[in-house]
Every structure is written in structure tokens, then in C-alpha cells.
Specification:
By secondary structure, this protein is mainly alpha-helical. The chain contains 11 helices and 2 strands. Strands 1-2 form a two-stranded antiparallel sheet. The protein starts with about 20 loop residues before the first strand and ends in a 7-residue tail after the last helix. The N terminus is likely disordered.
């Protein structure tokens, strides 16, 4: 990291330092042409493209992701129109809900089949498990996300209060943190002096470096809904065999078929890396 100290004659203009916290994002004009618009508080890069470049080990794509001017040129010429995937903040709820739905419902089916219960009873027990356990998982996700968000906000308010009342002490803490990362003391002081000119950015960075907390924009309600529907959809797979068998009056190899379907679903389930 190389930082050039500004000339003494311009140090009094430190109020303009907040301008460095800008990034360029693409927006669509009414004529369908893509333009770049400056937006505060973000890096000048395409994070989704950078992640994809890392997955493909594509150095050229990685460099392009960090070059907004070249992106603008390519997008204007129609060579860069890829739309990036959204919804990554729900991956945890989707995976937890789906896996729990598959395993718990299959356990109910296995126990019922082992007790030689009728097809109708197995279906009733499976659906009851989907509703009851699904609601339990969704409520747990809602309360867990809500508590985590409240904890994050409480810690952020505390850090903000400390910055407002003891800015020099907070700057010293940051210098010590950077020194532990191997940065020279003078360089660490210079970095902290620059960062601390922007109060909001300084607080966010302190949250990450000092407390290890990254503030997100999660929704407790949306997480709960994703968990419930993921649980219900994936959890229905182990009992779908019995539903079909009940409709068409089938009786052969039902548990074996349910087991194979469950195993195939677990084997082919997409991972976050695949997405």
C-alpha cells in the first residue's frame, strides 16, 4: 500500500477527503444506453465480476472488473451486458432450510415405513413435519437474524459514541491493529489519519478491524420466509413417492424409491460456489 502525503499547502483542504469514498455504478438511461454514475461509499470495481474472475482464474476479467472506465466503454459498445445475480444474502437460510427439510422429513418417512404404517399415515406425518418443523426453523431464523442485527447496531452506536468522545484513542487503537498486520507505525498513522477524516467510513472500518463485524442489509422476515419455503420444498421430496403411490394405488418399493430420490437430491444440491 503506497500513500503519498499531500503537500503542506493543501493539508488545510482535508474536508475534501471524503470525495475519495466514491464508486462508479452502471445505470440505464431512458434511451437504453448505459452510463456510469458516481455513488458514495463504495469501491470502484464490479464485485460480482471480480468474484467470477477468481472462480475462473481469469486474470484479464479480474483486471476489467477493477477498471470502471474500460467497463463503461465496453458497455457503451454493447460488449458487456451481463446481469449479475442477486439474492446471495439468502444462501445461508436457503441451504439450512433445505437440508433440514430433507433430513428430518426422510427420518419421519423412514420411521413410519419401519413401523409398517399405511401410505396415508406416512403422508400425514410427513406433511405435519413439514409444517411444524418448517415454522420452527423459520421462527428460529427470524429471531436469530433479528438478534444479530440488533447486536450489530448496538455495537455500531457504541463505536460511534467512542469516536465522538475519544477520537484520538480510537485512532491509536487502529494504528495498533495495523501494526499487528505488519504495517510500519508511520504508515499506519498516515492511513488512520486519512480514514478518520470520514466519520462514517472510520466507524465502519473500526467495526470490521476491531470487532470483526461486517454490517449487512439482511431482512429477518425475508430470511424466515426463505427458510420456510426451502424447508417445505426440499422436505417434500422424501414423501412425494408416497403421495404418487396413494393417488395411483401403488405399493411396491416405496421406501426404496423415496431413499433414492432423497440421495439424488442431496448429491445434486447446488453449492454457493456453483452459483
Amino acid at each position: 500500500l503506497m500513500i503519498r502525503r499531500p503537500p503542506r499547502s493543501t493539508q488545510s483542504r482535508s474536508s475534501a477527503a471524503s470525495d475519495v469514498y466514491k464508486r462508479q455504478v452502471s445505470t440505464q438511461s431512458t434511451w437504453g444506453q448505459t452510463i456510469l454514475k458516481m455513488e458514495n461509499n463504495g469501491p470502484r470495481r464490479d464485485l460480482a465480476a471480480a468474484k467470477k474472475a477468481y472462480q475462473n482464474q481469469d486474470v484479464d476479467q479480474m483486471r476489467l472488473a477493477h477498471n470502471p472506465d474500460e467497463q463503461a466503454r465496453l458497455m457503451h459498445n454493447g460488449h458487456l451486458g451481463e446481469k449479475h445475480k442477486a439474492g446471495g444474502e439468502f444462501i445461508k437460510s436457503f441451504v439450512y432450510g433445505g437440508l433440514d427439510g430433507i433430513i428430518t422429513t426422510y427420518s419421519v418417512v423412514a420411521g413410519s415405513a419401519g413401523a409398517d404404517l399405511s401410505t396415508a399415515v406416512i403422508i400425514i406425518l410427513g406433511i405435519a413435519n413439514l409444517i411444524g418443523d418448517g415454522l420452527s426453523m423459520a421462527l428460529g431464523d427470524f429471531l436469530g437474524t433479528k438478534s444479530e442485527m440488533e447486536f450489530t447496531q448496538a455495537e455500531k452506536k457504541r463505536e460511534a459514541w467512542e469516536v465522538d468522545n475519544n477520537i484520538e484513542g480510537e485512532k491509536l487503537e487502529m494504528v495498533e491493529i495495523y501494526e499487528k498486520k505488519g504495517i510500519a507505525k508511520d504508515d499506519a498513522k498516515q492511513i488512520v489519519d486519512i480514514i478518520s477524516k470520514n466519520r462514517a467510513a472510520f466507524i465502519d472500518i473500526m467495526m470490521i478491524e476491531e470487532l470483526g463485524i461486517i454490517e449487512g442489509e439482511e431482512s429477518a422476515v425475508k430470511n424466515a420466509l426463505v427458510t420456510f419455503f426451502s424447508f417445505a420444498i426440499f422436505g417434500f421430496v422424501p414423501i412425494i413417492t408416497y403421495v404418487v403411490a396413494h393417488i395411483f394405488d401403488l405399493t411396491s418399493n416405496l421406501f426404496l424409491t423415496a431413499t433414492l430420490l432423497t440421495a439424488c437430491l442431496l448429491y445434486t444440491s447446488p453449492s454457493p460456489r456453483d452459483s
